[in-house]
Amino acid sequence: MHFLGKNLRYLRKQSSKTQSEIAALIKKGQTTVGNWENGISEPNLEELLIISNYFDIPLDTLLKVDLSEVNVYQRQGSAISTPYDHSDTEDQMIKEDKLNYVLQEIKNLREEMERINSRLPENK
Asked: What's the pTM?
């Protein structure tokens, strides 16, 4: 089970942002953000990364942890911060490994899409 919609609403409200403000950040409509929060649809990977970076929250935490239940995030000024140190070398290496894995998967998907597209008849 993932908590994307619930967490997006939680983080948005904790930062006193409207759906329209988040939508403008992602260059989408307010209805789209509402649909994400209600589980009707989901953002693509690029949109997830924007949300993750905006709220300064790891992507896996955004998806897998119910932030309203765990309450591991505390509001400090206008930013949401994590209770652990981002500068830890071992954690950084793990994050880099995960990022490399995700980037490789994206590359593999692109190559697969190109392979499939090359087999489709061209529209003339």
From this structure: 0.57
